[in-house]
Fold this sequence. Notes:
- The chain is an alpha/beta fold.
- The chain is built from 5 helices and 5 strands.
- About 30% of the residues are buried.
- Helix 2 runs parallel beside helix 3.
- The protein has a single domain, classed as Response regulator (Rossmann fold).
- It has helices at about 10-25, 35-45, 60-70, 85-90, 105-115; strands at about 5-10, 30, 50-55, 75-80, 95-100.
- A 5-stranded parallel beta sheet has the order 2-1-3-4-5, with helices on both faces.
Amino acid sequence: MRKTILVVDDSPDIQEVLKTFLESHGHTVHTTEAPNEAIRIVKTAMPEVVLLDYHLPGLTPDAFIKIVRAESPGVCIILVSGVTDVSEKAKSLGLKFAIQKPFDPTTLLDLIAKAT
């Protein structure tokens, strides 16, 4: 099922790889490294899924999540991080889904399918 996905990551390389991969599987993908730009995209593009890097400049993950949920309560946020306890971090932020970098692209597709 085709979804609109927002990738919020401070690495342009990761943004580009994820955009190319997800678009090749039929998804519409928006990318940004800036939390404020991500919030604008949530308001305008109404993504079903946000892939959120844990370490972003300028805004803590919990503050970002609170703002996004206020703007778009139905959006599924998947925490993406290189830390080993990414699942625990996700739970502490009230998120159901997380994936640890580096990850198998098929696992990401499965997670996106489950998330919505």
